[in-house]
Amino acid sequence: MKLAMLARNANLYSHKRIVAAARARGHEIEVIDTLRCYMNIASHRPDVRYRGRSLQGFDAVIPRIGASVTFYGLAVLRQFEMMGVYPLNESVAIGRSRDKLRCLQLLSRKGIGLPVTAFAHATSQADDLIDMVGGTPLVVKLLEGTQGIGVVLAETRTSAKSMIEAFGGVEANILVQEFIREASGSDIRAFVIGGKVVAAMQRTGAPDEFRSNLHRGGKAQAVKITPEERSTAVRVAKIIGLNVCGVDMLRSNHGPVVMEVNSTPGLEGIESATGQDIATMMVEFLEKNAKPNRTKTRGEG
Fold first, then answer.
1. Dihedral angle at the C-alpha atoms of 123, 125, 128, 132, nearest 10 degrees?
2. Which fold has domain 117-179?
């Protein structure tokens, strides 16, 4: 196959692993800088151009679109879909996962376990927001935050009100969520490919850190997940429409609760923790499924 990978930095661990896995299986793969692509929107024959040439002729596209370039990246991916190129993850599904509020709404509608969550822009009713999630301690999140940035823990009602009002002062959309104390600063990431959990790790935050992100000094180890956790991860991927994703869950007293769905999950942490060759599994999924014009939405979502 001839594969395109949309990525800004070809030297990231995950991107190098995917390239190596594709070439090891005999495929041709090119890393394409997402922001250097441009398109003729009015063309009767959809096309993406890059460095003065057309990007026709690819069998599949692997979107590794950074959160900071989501808008433009999804526009490029939609154009590939309109050209009939099979995407590892579709633009509509990635868009759902990147909109944290929309993602939670979709999961809630299907009965997926979630932490009690409130959403607000105007923060004049901070007391009511705090009461909605069961009081303190609670977590305040910026809707656009990534990798634990813009996520703060409020231990007391006074600090919670101050944080909520401070975010409101900068015109930010925020999520206010209950704090799952029994998770003890750990979460589970289940890695889903093609409707199956292929690997799972437990991430534990650094000392005195409630966020478990590996970028913030957290540690990861392989973990055996329960049938309920496995089923939840698979259902989440299906609801959002993702072929490949990381589903982040907390172990609460009332079962797994989903915190986030990552449509461009990193490979270094989970491959190191579990010893699984995730990159090759992703390429194998494309080998089985990449057919022209097989995208469900064809860029129409």
1. -30
2. Dna Ligase; domain 1 (3.30.1490)
